[in-house]
């Protein structure tokens, strides 16, 4: 749902740029995409995945995913436009290509919960620190 919302923002900005500027399609796609990037990260982090992990590492991982997503988006949209497809249709087609990749990477890499064993190990370390080293 959030992806559809931020995609609508992306497509709206792209449409406005194509209507009111003479920017090349690749530049217009890039501007619209980057504008939606921050909004998408914030909404995915807070609403979709409800993450409370430190933001720095997640943002770096998300940025890595978005680089791949961005390159696919620009090349697919530009390529389909060059062969005669309307830029809006080309952009929708590109979004279909990257939707599964982006969601999967976000779900299982960027915003994933730590494995239960890691949480348990940290809890045990915290418990030992609170009471001191066990006496043999």
Folded structure, characterized:
By secondary structure, the chain is mostly helical. Helix content is 82%, strand content 0%. α1 (2-20) packs antiparallel against α4 (87-110). The model is unreliable at 126-136 (pLDDT under 50).
List keywords for this structure.
136 residues, 5 helices, mainly alpha, 82% helix, disordered C terminus
Global geometry: elongated
Q: List how many beta strands DSSP finds.
A: 0
Could you report the average pLDDT, rounded to the nearest whole number?
A: 83
Number of helices, where a helix is a run of at least 4 consecutive DSSP H or I residues: 5
Q: List segments where confidence is low: pLDDT < 50 over at least 5 consecutive residues.
A: 126-136
Largest sheet: none
Strand content: under 5%
Structural class: mainly alpha
Using only CA atoms, what is the Rg? 20 Å
In whole angstroms, the N-to-C terminal distance is 56 Å
Secondary-structure element series? HHHHH
Helical percentage: over 70%
Describe the SSE topology.
Blueprint: H1 2-20, H2 25-48, H3 55-82, H4 87-110, H5 116-131
Offer a quick outline of the entry.
This protein is mostly helical and 136 residues long.
